[in-house]
Amino acid sequence: MKARNVRLVCRSKLNDFIKSITDENIAKLVKENAIITGGAIASMLRGEDVSDFDIYFRTGNSAFLIAKYFVNQFCHNPPPRFKNNKTIQIDVQELADRVRVVVKSAGVASEKPAEEYQYFETTDPESGDAAEYAEAAFAIAKDAVVDDKPKYRPVFLSSNAITLSDKVQLITRFYGEPDDIHQNYDFVHCTNYYSSWDEKLVLRPEAVEALLAKELRYVGSKYPLCSVIRTRKFIQRGWACTAGQYLKMIMQLQELNLNSVSVLEEQLTGVDTAYFVQIIELLKERNLEHVDTAYLVELIDRIF
Question: Which domain holds residue 213?
Answer without folding.
Answer: 3-217
